[in-house]
Amino acid sequence: MKDDRAETLSRELDAAFRNRADLYRLFYDELAATLGPDDAEALMIRVIERRGREVAEAAFRGFGPNDARAIGEAFLAASPDGGRMYPTDVERDGRHIAFRVRRCPLKDAWVEAGIDGERLATLCRIAGAFDRGLFEATGVRFENVTWTPGHGPGCCHIRLGDREG
Hints:
The protein is built from five helices and four strands; from the N terminus they run αααββααββ. With 165 residues, it is of the alpha+beta class. The protein is globular, with a radius of gyration of 16 Å. The protein has a four-stranded antiparallel β-sheet with strand order 1-2-4-3, with helices on one face.
């Protein structure tokens, strides 16, 4: 009985993230039709990055610009569905942590909706703004390479480093 509930919640969580992907896609399409694609992307990035900063205020309170590894570990510990939703390959050293995201439910939903090429890359950049807001709010060094055509089957690559050193 308990395992059935956990499995149901896992499916519902995945569906909620796919719904988020659909909202991003639909908002982008509407805004692009009204404002043009560049302004639509810029507006969505500003809003989503802002939300990332809001989340960082609670999620990373007490961390500072030289806590990159600890911030990365806290991020991994809070990964939805025990990390199964966003499986990652992780590289660590004393002052850095890097993630290679192997699967993203947002990207999966867009691909299933028939999105590919540059439009898929645009939606990935927009979604990646959340991570930028989240991690840059802590003051650590943040690098993110979102999916582009030719990038391969995975998703984004994130690297966090201490500000000093």
